[in-house]
Design goal:
Structural class: alpha/beta
Number of domains: 2
CATH class of the largest domain: Alpha Beta
Shape: elongated
Mean pLDDT: 95
Number of helices: 11
Helix content: 25-40%
Order of helices and strands: EHEHEHEHEHEHEHEHEHEEHH
CATH architecture of the largest domain: 3-Layer(aba) Sandwich
Largest sheet: 7 strands, mixed
Number of strands: 11
Oligomer: single chain
Distance between the termini: 61 Å
Low-confidence stretches: none
Bound molecules: 6-O-phosphono-beta-D-fructofuranose
Radius of gyration: 22 Å
Length: 326
């Protein structure tokens, strides 16, 4: 590949607050460095359909504070197939796009990794998902905002739970991972947190609550990660009802409201740094890598590592759940 003159940028998979801040940073860094920028709409689908739109510095004005993604997004089945990727490559070539920034999560990077094994247009990733489940970066764009949204909701649930001496099972997103559950559980003083990474903890609720029960807590909040092996909050609450007869139980599933809203300051700043670093990486001749943040420094992580390795939970936080709940 020769010198990069024109880059594409897309958002893919589930949207996350802060994606617009990342698009803005990519666009402006590229233009600052004399490159042309093409927005690819609807993720990989837009590559396959040549749904391209040139972006100028002003195209991303007034977007840093907006949730969702101005480029739209999609989960694209066709890009999983060789014919879909071939079409995408031909369209990129025809538009003279010689590098692409993919803002997305795990599935998006898997696609990018395969594409870069087959074709010579370099892809660089920016981690964008509320789930924070990508190995190689301490934070993904959208996680902090989603967490703050969950915390606000759970605080409100706590008010009504205390007023009526109730127990709430609150289900949060996170796909197969418990990062949102763990952080929001700690931040709201939840009495128990059920997460996929900790096997069997849905069965131990009674034990987990013993300390609180002794103190006659006026409310109990159990945070349930949607991906737990025991099922969602409804299923778990239903199963535990017989052994929790002394509690009045309610269930609340927070759902997609966790994905919306104006990005937090941290997500905006992280998105600005990562978007900038992604363009710098392309200019440095990198490909098949994700830009990440480790200990507040920018790092480059090969896609194959980012998608293969599981990002574990913060063990210190896991250890203090029970300590802080006496
Ligand atoms: O990956 C982001 C996420 O919000 C997950 O937390 C959740 O499991 C999934 O996307 C929901 O996907 P959809 O919007 O397709 O229902």
């Amino acid at each position: 590949m020769g010198k990069i003159k024109k880059i594409g940028v897309l958002t893919s998979g589930g949207d996350a607050p802060g994606m617009n801040a990342a698009i803005r940073a990519v666009t402006r860094t590229a233009i600052y460095n004399g490159l042309e920028v093409i927005g690819i709409r609807h993720g990989y689908l837009g590559m396959i359909n040549a749904n391209f739109k040139p972006l100028q510095a002003h195209s991303v004005s007034d977007t840093i504070q907006r949730g969702g993604t101005i480029l739209k997004t999609a989960r694209c089945e066709e890009f999983r197939k060789p014919e879909g990727r071939k079409k995408a490559y031909e369209n990129l070539r025809a538009a003279e796009i010689d590098g692409v920034v993919v803002i997305g999560g795990d599935g998006s990077f898997k696609g990018a990794n395969i594409f870069n094994e087959e074709y010579d247009i370099p892809f660089v990733g920016v981690p964008g998902t509320i789930d924070n489940d990508i190995f190689g970066t301490d934070y993904t764009i959208g996680y902090d905002t989603a967490l703050n949204t969950v915390v606000q909701c759970v605080d409100k649930i706590r008010d009504t739970a205390s007023a009526l001496n109730r127990m709430f099972f609150v289900e949060v997103m996170g796909a197969e991972s418990g990062h949102i559950a763990l952080y929001s559980g700690i931040a709201t003083g939840a009495e128990a947190i059920i997460m996929p990474e900790i096997k069997g903890n849905a069965r131990d609720i009674r034990k987990m609550l013993e300390t609180g029960n002794k103190r006659k807590k006026s409310s109990n909040i159990i945070i349930v990660a949607e991906g737990d092996e025991a099922g969602g909050a409804l299923a778990i609450a239903e199963r535990l009802k017989p052994e929790l007869q002394d509690y009045e139980i309610r269930v609340s599933i927070l759902g997609h409201l966790q994905r919306g809203g104006s990005p937090s300051a941290l997500d905006r700043v992280n998105a600005s740094r990562l978007g900038n670093a992604a363009v710098e990486a392309l200019l440095d001749g990198q490909q098949s890598v994700m830009v990440g943040l480790q200990n507040n420094e920018i790092v480059l992580v090969p896609f194959r590592k980012a998608v293969k390795q599981h990002k574990g939970l913060n063990q210190h936080l896991v250890d203090i759940i029970d300590v802080l709940n006496i």
